[in-house]
Amino acid sequence: MGLDIRWPIGLMFSLIGAILVIYGVITGKDVEMYKRSLEINVNLIWGVLLLIFGVLMLVWVKLSGGADKKASK
What we know:
Elements: H1 6-26, H2 42-72
């Protein structure tokens, strides 16, 4: 039984999402920075989406990991 690909994918997306969320929160008050994106904090929005996706991948592997162990017994 090898490493499930969902672990590294979930960790990668969670880490990148967390970095973007932190960066979006820190730079949220900078109006000039977000003028090009119609004053929408895209770093915060995409950070949250990536973080949600990463956490869902980790939850999915955790839930299916229990089912795989039960099936193999």
